[in-house]
Design a protein that fits this description.
This protein is α/β, with parallel strands linked by helices. 38% of the residues lie in helices and 16% in strands. The strands form 2 sheets. An 8-stranded mixed β-sheet has the order 1-4-3-2-5-6-7-8, with helices on both faces. It has a 6-stranded parallel β-sheet with strand order 11-10-9-12-13-14, with helices on both faces. Helix 4 (112-118) links the parallel strand 5 and strand 6 (124-127).
Length: 399
């Protein structure tokens, strides 16, 4: 398996910094978006899953090298451990030949610890999306995996400020924690989705989007929607995502105006759902942060979210959306009614969330912060001008 080598773009602004970017998720578009920004400011080598759904996006990046590795999809696949180990050793050799200043792990996978172990003394910058594990994903093996990854990391990146003290309480050195907020997901915007948003005349619509998990508060949302129907009979609720809906079927059977699209949604379809809604509902009972909020922001759609975890950092109360107490059916229903019944309020909040100044950060800004984190991990002198951080804004780095 040969590495594809390309000449570095002479316009790169951090030419001394070389990064091995290890993204082993099959569907993690987060990693692709961040890599696009990072490739502008660093010499980048990408190590990705051979089964990634975004091969074209990876191969179009202006990077110095591209390596694919096998990523088992099921536990039983690990019985092919010999072949897997050979594959990872080959990838690790290519990474070491690249001589990176740091390795970045934007999304962890089951084989992350093994590959990191094979990278020798390369400093590792590890993203931790869920410092507090969600209900149903907090068993012994998941906690052991989290502990191993932390032990291998020279620096840990969190996406929400509220989890910095959490990591400190759990024993991680505060000076080695970096805060890099989630970038705005404009990846899904297409000319078709823009046209659809302008042309659609429809009933007032709420959207829940994402994998159906116990902590997502779907049962709370269903009961809140009953209240919405009492005030706005024409209202619709669209629930979109993969996972089991079986436990909610009885509850949902008597709810009119409910549409359930229970499947994995291709990238090309995402924009159609966000273009056809008036508000996105994120009724989680616990949360680290939400990529769904960042998609809504890109589409100029206001968000109604639980006031938990990092969600309160992504939603500007009364400006880009509304925050409600978690598991509070009445508060959630009232918030939905207030947005659906007031077009002016709804549009102003959507515009506020999408505004570059008051909304989220761009992927270029996130990449500049990550560049600084990598420089710290590598012990390289941090030169703000080298990454144009004077124009991007002061790095939001903790420690």
């Amino acid at each position: 398996m040969a590495m594809t080598v390309r000449k570095s773009d002479s316009s790169f602004r951090c030419q001394r910094l070389k990064i091995a970017y290890v993204n082993l998720g099959r569907r993690a578009i987060y990693g692709v978006c961040l890599a696009k920004g990072l490739a502008k400011v660093c010499d980048l080598m990408a190590v990705v899953s051979r089964h990634s759904e975004h091969h074209t996006s990876w191969q179009e990046l202006p990077i110095c090298g591209y390596v694919e590795v096998d990523t088992p999809s099921e536990a039983k696949s690990f019985f092919r451990f010999g072949a897997l180990l050979i594959d990872l050793m080959r990838a690790a050799r290519q990474v070491r030949a690249f001589k990176p200043d740091a390795a970045v792990i934007p999304m962890q996978s089951p084989i992350t610890p093994l590959l990191c172990a094979l990278l020798g003394d390369t400093p590792v910058v590890m993203f931790e999306h869920d410092p507090i594990l969600h209900e149903g994903a907090d068993g012994f093996w998941r906690r052991a995996f989290q502990w191993i990854c932390r032990r291998q990391a020279h620096r840990i990146v969190v996406l929400s400020e509220c989890f910095v003290p959490v990591l400190v309480e759990q024993g991680f050195d505060r000076t080695k924690i970096d805060l890099i907020p989630h970038g705005t997901f404009d990846y899904y915007i297409t000319p078709r989705s823009h046209a659809q948003k302008k042309e659609m005349a429809r009933e007032p619509t709420l959207l829940f989007f994402g994998r159906l998990e116990p902590y997502k508060g779907i049962e709370i949302l269903l009961e809140a929607f009953r209240m919405v129907k009492d005030s706005i009979p024409r209202a619709r609720l669209v629930i979109v995502g993969s996972g089991s809906f079986a436990q909610y079927r009885e509850q949902a059977a008597s709810i009119h105006g409910l549409e359930v699209v229970n499947k994995w949604i291709a990238d090309s379809e995402v924009g159609e759902f966000f273009s056809a809604t008036d508000a996105v509902v994120v009724p989680y009972t616990s949360a680290s942060q939400s990529g769904v909020i960042e998609i809504a922001r890109a589409f100029g759609v206001p968000v109604i979210a639980s006031n938990v975890g990092g969600l309160r950092e992504q939603v500007r109360e009364g400006r880009s959306g509304l925050l409600v107490p978690p598991s509070d059916i009445r508060a959630l229903g009232d918030a939905c009614v207030s947005i659906l019944s007031d077009p002016g309020f709804r549009e102003s909040m959507g515009a506020e969330g999408a505004a570059p100044i008051t909304g989220g950060i761009s992927w270029d800004e996130a990449a500049a912060l990550l560049c600084t984190a990598c420089q710290k991990a590598a012990g390289v002198e941090v030169l703000a001008a080298s990454c144009d951080q004077d124009t991007l804004g002061a790095p939001r780095i903790v420690g």
